[in-house]
Structure formats: C-alpha cells, structure tokens
C-alpha cells in the first residue's frame, strides 16, 4: 500500500501546473500505484477567505465516488481572518477532515501568534493534524509578487514547543535544516511526521538515522513538484539503510498510525 501525505489541487498564480485536479491527480496515483492521497486546495494560500478554497475542495472530492475512496482533504485555515474558528469547525466537524494546513508566511502572521497557538490547541483537542509547509515553490524562481524569503525549519519549532502534544506534519523540507540539539530533540520527542518530497531530503537515510524511522512518510508535493522523487527516496535506500519493514513504514504504516486510518 502507498499513501501520499502531501498533494494539491488548484492553481498556483506564478507557475503553470499540470494534473492539478482530482481527476489529474488520480491518474498520476494510478500510474505510480498510490492508494490514497492527502490533498489541499492551493487556492486557499491566496484567497482572502481560505474557507472558499476548502469548500471548493470538499465539493470536488464529493463529486465522484472514486474521489471519496482515494482522497483525504485537508483544509487551509488562516487564524487571523475573521471567522476562522467557524472555518475550523466546518472543516473538522462538518467535512470530517483529519487535518488542517496553515501558511503563516503567506498569510502574514508570526509562528507565535496567539491565534495560531489557539488553533493548534483546537486541532489537538479534536485529534486532527496540523501541517506546516516549509516551502511551496523555490524562491529563487519566484515572481516579484511572491514571497521574497523562506522560513527554515527552526523558525517553525516554537509552535511545536508551544503545543507539544499536538500532531504536526512537516512538509517539503526545501529550506535550511541547520538545527541545534534542542531542535532535534523537539522533533524526536513530538508527534511529528515528515514527508519525503523536500529538496533537503536528498540523503534520506541520514535523516532517518537523525530523527527516527517512525517520523517519515511518502509525500510528493505534486503537482508543484514531480511525482516520483518522493517515492524514489524510499525505494533507493540500500539494504543496510532500510529493510522491507522500514520501507513499509514510509510507504503507509507511519501515516496510518499518525492519522488513525
């Protein structure tokens, strides 16, 4: 079995994407043997009202039975936008989403913003995951209208420390991974799942050794990135780096435990 924990539908305003619908993503999943994908609507990064994007995604997933069986939608919540608590309840209670995503650098608030901390505590109490995205697109190829800076991993860790019993997904590690011993301990001690899509996961075996094999799961960041690299990092591990049981953890077992699938 194979589960992708980081995929999208929707458009990115500064880059043409292909396969960025449920139909397009499902075709790619069939090509590579992926059984289930966690998906988010990219429009929510840019809509002032992120809930409009969550509603779009929910309607699209509900439009075909095949989508219901193959997709796990995550909503995007902006905790400094009016009505965000209602948005959270709609996503979790009405739509049954098992996770939310936040984009503080795009929505212009700090990682220690009290509203964000409150949101994470609400997610913890509802037993849903909070996904933090280290990078959406490479800033070296950015539009002048896009973000000029990227946050390194360490900039997100104060939120993990503020709510240590929440569930966090750290996605697309495409930024600086310089971490102190305390930072590494925060990740190892927390209920954290890291996907395999990011550029800094090139030497995957080193990260498994550093953080633990239970901390990683297959992710593509598709359609922003190519579909195969995240899977290749798992399948290319040498025998002395990972056995078949370890690969099964990365392919599906870790995320099934994490999201209680």
TrEMBL record:
In terms of domain of life, where is this protein from?
A: Bacteria
**Pfam families referenced in this protein's UniProt entry, alphabetically:** Amidohydro_2
Q: Where are the transmembrane segments?
A: none
Domain Amidohydrolase-related, first and last residues per copy: 37-261
Q: Which SUPFAM superfamilies match?
A: Metallo-dependent hydrolases
Q: What is this protein called?
A: Amidohydrolase family protein
From what organism does this protein derive? Chitinophaga chungangae
């Amino acid at each position: 079995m194979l589960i992708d924990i980081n995929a999208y539908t929707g458009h990115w305003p500064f880059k043409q994407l292909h396969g960025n619908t449920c139909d397009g993503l499902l075709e790619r999943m069939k090509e590579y043997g992926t059984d289930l994908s966690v998906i988010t609507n990219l429009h929510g990064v840019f809509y002032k009202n992120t809930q409009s994007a969550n509603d779009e995604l929910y309607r699209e997933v509900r439009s075909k039975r095949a989508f219901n069986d193959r997709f796990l939608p995550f909503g995007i919540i902006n905790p400094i936008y009016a009505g965000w608590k209602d948005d959270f309840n709609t996503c979790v209670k009405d739509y049954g989403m098992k996770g939310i995503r936040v984009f503080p650098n795009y929505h212009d608030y700090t990682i220690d913003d009290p509203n964000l901390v409150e949101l994470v505590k609400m997610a913890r109490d509802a037993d849903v995951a909070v996904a933090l995205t280290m990078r959406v697109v490479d800033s070296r190829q950015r539009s002048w209208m896009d973000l000029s800076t990227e946050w390194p991993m360490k900039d997100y860790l104060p939120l993990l420390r503020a709510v240590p019993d929440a569930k966090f997904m750290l996605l697309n590690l495409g930024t600086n991974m310089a971490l102190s011993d305390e930072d590494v301990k925060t990740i190892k001690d927390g209920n954290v799942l890291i996907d395999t899509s990011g550029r800094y996961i090139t030497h995957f075996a080193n990260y498994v050794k550093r953080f633990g094999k239970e901390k990683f799961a297959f992710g593509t960041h598709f359609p922003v990135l190519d579909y195969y690299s995240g899977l290749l990092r798992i399948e290319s591990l040498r025998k002395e780096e990972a056995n078949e049981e370890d690969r099964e953890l990365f392919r599906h077992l870790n995320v099934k435990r994490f999201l209680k699938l």
